[in-house]
Amino acid sequence: MSLLEVRELKKYYPLPPERLFGPKRFVKAVDGVSFTLERGETLGLVGESGCGKSTLGRSIVRLEDPSSGEIILNGENLLSFRGNALRKKRGSFQMIFQDPYGSLNPRMTIFSTLEEPLLLHTDLDRNGRAEQVSKLMQMVGLDPKLADRYPHQFSGGQRQRIGIARALAVDPDFIVADEPVSALDVSVQAAIVNLLEDLQKERNFGMVFIAHDLAVVEHIADRIMVMYLGKAVEVAPAQQLCRDPKHPYTQALLSAVPGLRTEGKERIVLQGDVPSPLNPPSGCRFHPRCPKCMPVCKEKEPEMKPVPGCPGCSCACHLI
Ligand code: SF4
Fold first, then answer.
1. Cβ neighbours of residue 212 closer than 8 Å, sequence gap 6 or more
2. What is the model's pLDDT at position 184?
3. pLDDT tens across 75-88, in order?
4. Between 20 and 30 A from 205 (CA), which of 11, 19, 221, 279?
5. Which residue would you say has higher pLDDT here, 5 or 212?
């Protein structure tokens, strides 16, 4: 049994009808996404902005209420928990946010920030919590003597270290890291990515790592899932996907990254913008921009299916 299994997850946002008694309208931000995550594994989630990757991440840690689907963690459906039961469960799954400036309470010292999850999810007494806060700070490379300071007294990289310590305070089974380095200086990005990798080896948590930078994702992820307009279009082991992408959309994404572009291949420039998730195109959602579009693509939605001869690879395209 996988640590985490997400089945057919949907997140639709209702919009007011265009006219009185008109049909209901929805923005289909996530539209039937399924995947598994193992303990100690990192799944990279990539796609252009607006493809639904952040909504998917927020939904699996229950910061959004999914419209339907299942999120099975250690055999239990997280969507069946509400109120207090959900609050108790939250220790098992945590999120690291993109913006280390906005995700910490400016009025709380670092000690209080890190003590909060311990108060909620453990029976530790005051001394035990103080000891644990000190260990957490050391774990992320911060001096525990700085615990009585406030977030504004730290640099961006240090604040993201605090965010990581807070997420790992109660030993979660998995974390969702939503663009955790994109707001940081390039010089500190590698240090934060390496820290996450080291902590994962030590603590064996599963991680969903969301990013638009494919080079970072290829470095940290074991597998990569590519999303387009609310759907997963390709999943494969990270190096396999970067070396030999099967889906035309993944091929275009990769061709835009100079370091990852397959030798001898030209950059594929996609025409037009990502269509609105309010009214996605018929058939394959990528068809209006796909350089390999065939007549069937406009009518029939391709299913995600295993790629023959490529273990662990799945792709949703009529060419496969
Ligand atoms: Fe392109 Fe057709 Fe494949 Fe969609 S199904 S990615 S339109 S070839």
1. 46, 47, 48, 49, 179, 182
2. 86
3. 999 999 988 899 88
4. 11
5. 5
CA of 307 to the centre of ligand 1 (A): 15
Ramachandran region, residue 289 (left: φ > 0; alpha: ψ -120 to 50; beta: rest): alpha
Q: How far is CA 251 from the centre of its chain?
A: 21
Q: Which two tokens stand for residue 53?
A: 């990757």
Please tell me the residue having the least CA distance from ligand 1 atom 7: 287
Place of tokens 């400036």: 101
254, 214 contact by CB (below 8 A)? yes
Contact by Cβ (8 Å): 163, 114: no
CA 281 to centroid of ligand 1, rounded, Å: 12
What's the pLDDT at 263?
Answer: 55
How far away, in angstroms, is 53 Cα from ligand 1 center?
20
Ligand 1 atom, smallest distance to 294 CA: 2
Query: Hey, what are 128's tokens?
Result: 């035990």
pLDDT band at 158 (very low <50, low <70, confident <90, very high): very high
Please tell me what DSSP assigns to residue 55: H
| Residue type (1 letter), 195 | L
User: Domains, the chain, ranges and CATH?
Assistant: 4-315 (3.40.50.300)
Sequence-separated contacts (24+) of 53-59 with Cβ below 8 Å: 53/210, 53/227, 54/178, 54/179, 54/210, 55/11, 55/29, 55/30, 56/9, 56/11, 56/30, 56/227, 57/95, 57/176, 57/178, 57/208, 57/210, 58/95, 58/176, 58/178, 59/9, 59/11, 59/30
Angle at the Cα of 9 from the Cα atoms of 217 and 216, rounded to 5 degrees: 5
Question: What is the Cα–Cα distance from 176 to 180, expressed in whole angstroms?
Answer: 9
Q: To test ligand 1's pocket by mutation, which of 227, 234, 250, 294 has the most ligand atoms within 8 angstroms of CB? A: 294
Instruction: Locate 258 and state its tokens.
Output: 């100079």
